[in-house]
Write a structure and sequence with these properties.
L-threonine aldolase, three-stranded antiparallel beta sheet, seven-stranded mixed beta sheet, 13 helices, single chain, alpha/beta, lyase, Aspartate Aminotransferase, domain 2
Amino acid sequence: MMDFTSDNTSGVSEKIMQAILKANAGSSAAYGVDPFTARASALLSEIFEKELAVFLVATGTAANALALGALCPPWGAVFCHARAHIFEDECGAPEMFTAGAKLVGVAGEAGRIAPSALRESLAAFPRGAVKQVQPAALSLSQATEAGAVYDLAELTELCRIAHDAGLGVHMDGARFANALVELNCSPAEMSWKAGIDILSFGATKNGALACEAIIVFDPAKAASLPFQRKRGGHLLSKGRFLGAQMAAYLENGHWLDNARVANAHAARLAAGLAEASGVRMPWPRQANEVFAILPARADAALRAAGVRYYDWSDRDFGEMRRDGEVFVRLLTSFATQAAEVDAFIALARG
C-alpha cells in the first residue's frame, strides 16, 4: 500500500528505536531529571547556539498549547493563520491551556501570514479596550499547513511587527527540520535570531516515536512552564524515554538526514506531477508536503490502485478547483520509498 496521507503514518527510525531500547536497560531518575534528558537539552543548546530552557513532551498539541499558555493570559489573543493547526486541528487545546484566550485567524497565501493582514488584525484589537481580548502572542507555523516555508526575511518582518505591538512570538515547528533543510540556514537563524521567543520543536513526524520539545530562548521567560506542564498532565514520569529519543534524533545530524530524505521525495513527486497531463500545482512545493489539483480520472485511478492520501479543502486558499478536479495533499517522510513515488507519478499520468 502506498500511503501519502501523513508523515505520522511512518514508523520510528532505527537509530531512535535503538536509543529507546538502550534507555530501557536498568533504572534512571524519574520526571525528566535523568542523563538522557540532560543530554538532549545540551544538544539543543549546542544546535541553537544559545542557552535554552527545554521542556520535553509527547505530542505536538501539548507543545503548542503549553507554549502559548506561557505567552498568553486568559484575556489575551493569539494571532495565527486562519488555517493554522492550532486554529483548526487541536480541539481547543490552546484555548484550554491558556485558560480561555482567543485565537484570531489571519489571512495569507499558502498558510503564510501576510504582514499587511497581521497589521490589520492587530489594529482591530486596540490595547486597553476593556470589551476585547488583549493582543498577547503571534503563532507562526514553519512549515505551514499548506506546506509553504517562510524565508528568513519574512520571519523577521512578522516578528518585528509582533514585538513592536508588544506580542510574544511562538513558532509551531512540527516540521521544523523540513523547513530548515529547505532554507539551508542554521536553526538559530530560523528561530531566535529572526525573533522567535518560544518554539515547538517537532521530532515525531521526522522519525521519533512520540517526542517534541518546547524551547524557550530566554530561560527567564520559562518560569511558569514547569508548573503548567505538570498541571496539564504532560510531565512524564519515565521522561528518560523522551530524552533518549530527542538525543538520538539530534546526534550526528540524524534529524537533518531524515528531513532531507523526506523533502527529496516530495520534490521528486512534485516534479513528476507537474509534468502529468491535466495536473495543476497551486503553489510551489516546499518541505515535504505536495499539494496538487488532479483530474478526477487520475484521482480515481490512484484510489483504485489502493493509494492513500487526503482530499484537501481550498477554503481560505482561494477557489482553485474546476469541475472534474480534485484538490489533494500528499506527504512524504524519511521512510518513503522512491518506488512508491515513481508508482504514484505513473498512475497519475495514466
